[in-house]
Write a structure and sequence with these properties.
This protein is of the alpha/beta class and 717 residues long. It is built from 23 helices and 39 strands. The chain is 28% helix and 21% strand. Bound molecules: ligand MGD (2 copies), iron/sulfur cluster and molybdenum atom.
């Protein structure tokens, strides 16, 4: 058979690199970066190049599976499985109400351009609020803080034309992710290098000398969990030295005086000592940021997963605004979005409209909806807590709660308690092993998709619509399609922005994408006709003057913020050289990180990626290992207030002393530990969901977790 070559984009992660795939006999045999793509220019990473093995690996779930009472699985025809699932769901809705049926969309829901909208719309169609996604255990702080701060209609400065970019706990060289305003997702290393050559200064605040810190102008090797102090210190210096944009502040900010008073106690000495850096470093970083003409401060998971994550994001918004880092009248908006509907950009404030505190309430911890979703950190309790509203069925789309949710033992109890667990998963993951049904997903190369998620992450008006490259496995279903199947069987239509999906007639992916984005700036058909990634040069959006009667202001101190700043000032987790948590003493803080060769728990199954490591090492400074009498490769017990795990120690000079740096989403179901060097272990064993959580988002402390370490003999493990 001849080899054919197809242009498409990789969906192993959210970076969506443009690739070429060689196909022979209906199978992908090679993946290369598409050097003709105007944005990606041929970039790929080691994960994307393993798409051929992802297709052929015997570990892949190719046929849907049904669990037998003994825990093994039998193959089942997917239509039959969907009949049974639908019947059970309809029965549960009849007996317990629609709230008893829940969805959790994990990271592979985000890789399918229809898999966020459809499930949410289905939940609306049956009036069930039980819709959860991984965002609420990730960086919900971003949307929440923006919603109560207000937004600048003209948009804020972006990495592209900034003179300075301050990255707090964000490592895009490995994660390919930066928050809105940071480097775009593709080849961030090359982008950072090129921009720095043109004069951009990069400042990184991270307890680890990361891959991005290594390339930066300045690295502040901060203590974990102190980002609110750091940002308060920055803001204090900027205001004190009058580096702020006085005109913008006077016209568009509310409460600058009171904020100035609140950050007053955060003197350079106080902040530097809390953060474990020098006063000189702190002041130099603040000045470098404040003195630049254009710039942006962005945060990654580091600050957002630490306690006070919402406040940290708020202070980043405040710092950008105080320095007037916004597009002003006449300036071009580099990428207004191609799939997003067109809207005028005006030099005025869009009033704050808090995306919480309304809608249905959670039954636990006084939590409620967070931007129209329920908080994932409370999902286990909603399953376990008996009574009205109890969740009885969970559809898990491309997610792996057993290794990703806080409190692994509780997660196991919850998954086992469910009357119905359906996983749409490429592998028999830790969670899928517990499922009643595993539905074989249609994998990326078998699907049409468009760059929906990254639409506004680019710094140019770029979009890519790809048609399926491979014929579809007829037993598979797309993540969104599960919901059409349910709608088809119940007769209740799903409403989308462009109209209803007909429950009678199976829609094509293209039909669905058109209904999801009926008002896109460039039509879905036009994007498809391009057949590859394309920069729409004709899109030229300029900031227009604000309307005369607009008087809304950006909110520096929405409800509770002033008090929380003071609370952080008075908090001190360190006493006499020890870290205190729940009245117990600890020596180290465990922080979260990403590894280049896996995407959370995905990729751990593929042989070439396994060559890069089959465990999630506990990276520590060599001096700390010496003090503890531990060597690289030794097993260590890592114990916090809420749990314990065994890890494999690994010396890493880039990690600050007093810190343990570990990736999440490794390991297996409790009891099924196996060899930690072959499976890794799950850091969610150290996370509690009911003691250290954010009051708005419910997100628990997922980094900067106090722990003690101890060498464990091989035989004891
Ligand atoms: N301790 C700790 N916990 C964390 C974090 C942390 O830093 N520390 N990070 C949090 C964050 S940021 C996130 S986003 C969550 C991630 O949480 P999840 O999304 O729940 O976890 P993943 O491991 O990404 O799960 C992805 C699942 O999709 C499956 N999969 C792979 N390919 C496909 C496919 O093509 N289709 C389908 N349908 N499935 C596929 C994989 O086998 C896997 O089971 O974890 C959170 N949990
Ligand atoms: N290769 C790969 N790419 C991924 C993933 C993956 O698993 N592998 N996961 C994807 C997911 S789900 C997400 S959400 C994104 C996340 O994208 P990023 O947020 O860029 O994730 P990380 O690379 O973990 O970078 C977070 C940094 O925060 C630092 N940090 C930890 N705690 C603190 C703290 O308290 N304060 C400060 N200042 N820094 C701290 C860590 O040392 C780390 O360098 O990455 C995505 N991309
Ligand atoms: S960074 Fe790697 S995994 Fe992510 S889209 Fe690009 S090639 Fe695929
Ligand atoms: Mo994430």
């Amino acid at each position: 058979m001849p080899v054919t070559t197809h242009k498409t984009f990789c969906r192993f992660c959210h970076a969506y690199c443009a690739i070429e795939v060689d196909v022979e006999d209906g199978k992908p045999i090679a993946v290369r970066g598409d050097t003709e793509d105007p944005v990606y220019g041929g970039y790929t990473c080691l994960k994307g190049r393993e798409l051929p093995e992802q297709y052929t690996t015997p570990a892949r779930v190719k046929n849907s599976l049904k669990r037998k009472p003994n825990g093994d699985f039998d193959e089942i025809d997917t239509d039959q499985a969907m009949d049974e699932i639908s019947a059970k769901i309809q029965q549960l809705i009849k007996d317990h109400g629609p709230r008893s049926v829940a969805t959790y969309v994990g990271s592979y829901g985000y890789q399918n351009s229809a898999a966020l909208v459809l499930p949410k719309a289905w939940h609306r169609s049956i009036d069930s609020p039980s819709y959860y996604t991984s965002v609420t255990i990730d960086q919900p702080a971003k949307a929440i803080s923006l919603s109560r701060f207000g937004a600048w209609g003209g948009g804020t400065h972006k990495f592209t034309d900034a003179d300075v970019c301050l990255m707090i706990g964000n490592n895009p060289v490995v994660s390919q992710f930066s928050a809105f305003g940071g480097p775009p997702p593709f080849s961030p290393y090359a982008r950072i290098r090129d921009e720095m050559k043109k004069g951009m200064k990069i400042i990184v605040a991270d307890p680890r000398r990361t891959e991005v810190a290594n390339r930066a102008t300045m690295h502040l090797q901060v203590n974990p969990g102190e980002d609110v102090a750091l940002l308060s210190g920055f803001i204090r210096i900027i205001l004190d030295e009058k580096l702020h944009d006085e005109e913008f502040c006077a016209q568009h900010l509310e409460d600058l005086e009171e904020l100035t008073r609140r950050v007053e106690p955060f003197t350079p000495d106080h902040v530097a000592s809390r953060c474990g850096i020098t006063v000189d470093e702190l002041v130099k970083a603040a000045r470098t940021f404040g003195e630049a003409k254009r710039g942006v401060v962005v945060g990654g998971t580091g600050p957002d997963m630490a306690p006070h994550g919402v406040l940290a994001e708020h202070l980043m918004l405040a710092m950008n605004a105080i320095c007037g880092r916004v597009n002003k009248v006449g300036e071009q908006v580099p990428n207004p979005g191609i799939i997003s509907p067109p809207a005028p950009r005006r030099a005025e404030v869009h009033a704050a409209n808090p995306a919480f505190g309304k809608g249905p309430a959670s039954r636990v911890r006084g939590l409620g909806e967070v931007f129209g979703e329920m908080p994932t950190a409370a999902l286990n309790d909603e399953i376990l807590l008996e009574g009205d509203g109890q969740i009885k069925a969970l559809i898990c789309l491309g997610g792996n709660p057993m290794v990703a949710f806080p409190d692994q033992d509780k997660t196991l109890e919850a998954m086992e308690k469910l009357e119905l667990l359906v996983c749409v998963d490429l592998y028999k993951s830790a969670t899928a092993k517990l499922a009643d049904y595993i539905i074989a997903p249609t994998i990326s190369l078998e699907r049409d998709d468009m760059t929906m998620l990254t639409d506004t992450w680019y710094d140019v008006p770029y979009a890519h619509y790809t048609k399926a490259v491979l014929p579809r496995n007829p037993q598979s279903r797309e993540e969104w399609e599960i919901y059409w199947e349910l709608s088809h069987r119940s007769g209740i239509p799903i409403g989308l922005p462009g109209g209803q999906l007909d429950p009678e007639k199976r829609p094509s992916k293209h039909d669905v994408l058109k209904l999801i984005a009926p008002n896109s700036r460039i039509s879905v058909d036009e994007m498809r006709a391009q057949g590859r990634g394309h920069i729409y040069e004709e899109v030229d959006v300029r900031v227009e003057p604000g309307s005369e009667n607009s008087s809304d202001l950006l909110q520096l101190l929405p409800d509770g913020v002033a008090e929380e700043i003071t609370e952080v000032y008075n908090e001190n987790i360190r006493r006499d050289g020890k870290i205190i948590d729940d009245d117990q003493e600890f020596t180290h803080l465990l922080i979260s990180r990403r590894l280049k060769h896996v995407f959370n728990s995905s990729g751990q199954q593929l042989t070439n990626l396994q060559k890069k490591g089959t465990t999630n090492p506990a990276y520590m400074n060599p001096a700390d290992l010496d003090l503890l009498g531990i060597e690289s490769g030794d097993l260590v017990e890592i114990k916090g207030v809420s749990g314990m795990l065994i890890g494999v120690a690994e010396a890493a000079g880039d990690v600050k002393q007093g810190v343990v740096s570990m990736a999440h989403a490794w390991g297996d179901i409790p009891g099924n530990w196996g060899d930690v060097r072959e499976k890794g272990s799950s850091t969610n064993r150290l996370i509690d969901d009911d003691r250290t959580y954010d009051k708005i988002t419910g997100q628990p402390r997922m980094t900067a977790i106090p722990v003690n370490l101890r060498h464990v003999p091989e035989d004891a493990a």
